[in-house]
Design goal:
mainly beta, Adenovirus Type 2 Hexon, domain 4
C-alpha cells in the first residue's frame, strides 16, 4: 500500500481548544492520525514537565464527529491514556529517553550501565526541548477499529490549562492512500468508548468507605472497569497520583444486579489487584527506576532510599501503581454498586474521590449514521 502524508492546519485554534477537519474527499489511514510540528512555552518561561500520561497530558478532552455533527467517539478523561500506554512495548528499542518521555513523562540520564540520574531533576529534557507527537488514533478505539476511511471527520480538542501556550500550533498529519485499497467494507463498527464516573469517599478517623450505586453504566455493556483514588490538591481540585503513589488499605468490590462480582473479599491486596489487571488487560510494564538511590523516598530501612524524585511535578517514581481493573464483560441491566474502602494519609483532607473509567461498547453504522450503546440483540 502506497500513501503520502498530508498536513492539515487547524480551522480554529486558541489557548483552550482547537478544531481540525478531514473533508473526506480522499481515502486515508485511520490508524495514523497524529498532531506534530508544534512547540509550547510556559507562561512564565519555565520548563514544562508532563505527568504519567506523557504527552497526552496536554489534552483535556477530545471528540471525533461525523458529517451530521454527531460525536462518534470521545475521551473526557485522559488518565485512560496512562493506563493504555503501560500495555505498549517499544518494538524498535531505538531511544530509551524518547520511549520513557513519550509514554510516561519520564526522562533519565544514563552515564553508564551502573548509574542513572533523573534528567528532569537537572533541568534537562523538559517538554520544550524534546521532539514528540500526539497520536490521535491511539486515543480513539473507533479509529483503531477501522483501517481505510473516506468519511468526513471533525476533530475537537480541548487543551489542559496548565499555564503553557503553543508558540507554534500543532498540525494534523493524515496519510492518504494512493493505491486501490478499498474503504472498510463493514457497515457497523464496534468499539469501546471510555465513560468516566467519580464518587466521593469521606475521611472518618483516618479511614473511608463507600457503598454506592454507580448510575453511569446502566443498560450498557461494560468490558473493563478501572478504579483509582484521587486526592484533593491544595486548591480543592482532585489530583491523580498515577502510578507513583499506592493508597494504603485499598479494597474494591462490585455488586451487579444483586450478585457479588468478586468473591473472597474482592481486590483487597496488591497481588490481587495486579493479577486482575494482567488477567483482564494483558501484561503491562511500569516505566520507572525504583532500584536507584536518592534521598526523598524512604524504604523499610530508613538507611535505604529507593526511587527517583521529580521536584518539578512533586512525584516519586517508585514503580508502584494505584490503578485497579475489574473485568465485567456483561450488560448492567439493573444497577452496579461499588463497595470500596481506603486508609487516609495523616493530615489528609476530609474527602477524597474514587475515579472510575469504564470501557463501554458502542456501535456506529456508517450507512445510516446511527450511533448508540451496543448490547446483544440491539442490531
Amino acid at each position: 500500500m502506497e500513501s503520502r502524508t498530508l498536513s492539515i492546519l487547524p480551522t480554529s485554534i486558541d489557548t483552550q481548544r482547537a478544531y481540525y477537519t478531514i473533508q473526506g474527499s480522499f481515502k486515508y489511514l485511520t490508524k495514523k492520525l497524529r498532531l506534530a510540528d508544534f512547540s509550547i512555552v510556559n507562561g512564565e518561561h519555565k520548563p514544562v514537565y508532563f505527568d504519567a500520561r506523557g504527552v497526552y497530558s496536554l489534552i483535556k478532552s477530545i471528540s471525533f464527529l461525523d458529517r451530521q455533527g454527531q460525536i462518534v467517539d470521545s475521551m473526557h478523561n485522559t488518565d485512560y491514556m496512562a493506563i493504555k500506554m503501560i500495555h505498549q512495548n517499544n518494538p524498535a528499542q531505538r531511544d530509551i529517553n524518547r520511549l520513557l518521555f513519550q509514554n510516561a513523562g519520564l526522562a533519565v540520564d544514563v552515564p553508564s550501565l551502573g548509574q542513572l540520574k533523573l534528567a528532569e531533576q537537572m533541568g534537562k529534557m523538559d517538554a520544550t526541548k524534546i521532539g514528540c507527537y500526539i497520536d490521535l488514533s491511539f486515543m480513539s478505539n473507533y479509529l483503531l477499529a477501522r483501517n481505510v476511511s473516506a468519511d468526513f471527520m471533525n476533530i475537537q480538542i480541548e487543551f489542559q490549562e496548565n499555564g503553557y501556550t503553543f508558540t507554534k500550533p500543532p498540525t494534523l498529519f493524515v496519510d492518504e492512500v494512493l493505491t486501490g485499497e478499498p474503504v472498510d467494507a463493514q457497515d457497523v463498527i464496534l468499539y469501546d468508548q471510555i465513560v468516566p464516573d467519580k464518587l466521593p469517599i469521606h475521611n472518618v478517623d483516618g479511614k473511608g468507605a463507600i457503598d454506592q450505586r454507580m448510575n453511569s453504566y446502566t443498560n450498557q455493556l461494560v468490558s473493563n472497569l478501572y478504579l483509582y483514588y484521587l486526592r484533593n490538591s491544595a486548591n480543592g481540585s482532585a489530583q491523580n497520583d498515577g502510578f507513583t503513589k499506592a493508597h494504603a488499605g485499598m479494597k474494591y468490590n462490585l455488586i451487579i444486579d444483586g450478585k457479588v462480582v468478586l468473591p473472597f473479599g474482592g481486590l483487597d491486596t496488591d497481588a490481587r489487584r495486579l493479577a486482575h489487571m494482567t488477567d483482564m488487560t494483558g501484561e503491562f510494564i511500569l516505566p520507572s527506576a525504583a532500584a536507584y538511590n536518592h534521598d526523598k523516598y524512604p524504604f523499610a530501612d530508613e538507611t535505604i532510599k529507593l526511587g527517583l524524585y521529580n521536584p518539578n511535578i512533586n512525584k516519586t517514581y517508585s514503580g508502584s501503581h494505584s490503578y485497579s481493573c475489574i473485568g465485567l464483560n456483561q450488560v448492567i441491566v439493573g444497577e452496579l454498586t461499588i463497595q470500596a474502602s481506603s486508609s487516609f494519609d495523616e493530615g489528609a483532607d476530609r474527602i477524597q474521590f474514587i475515579q472510575a473509567l469504564a470501557e463501554v461498547k458502542r456501535y456506529y453504522q456508517r450507512s445510516t449514521g446511527s450511533i448508540g450503546n451496543f448490547a446483544p440483540g440491539s442490531l
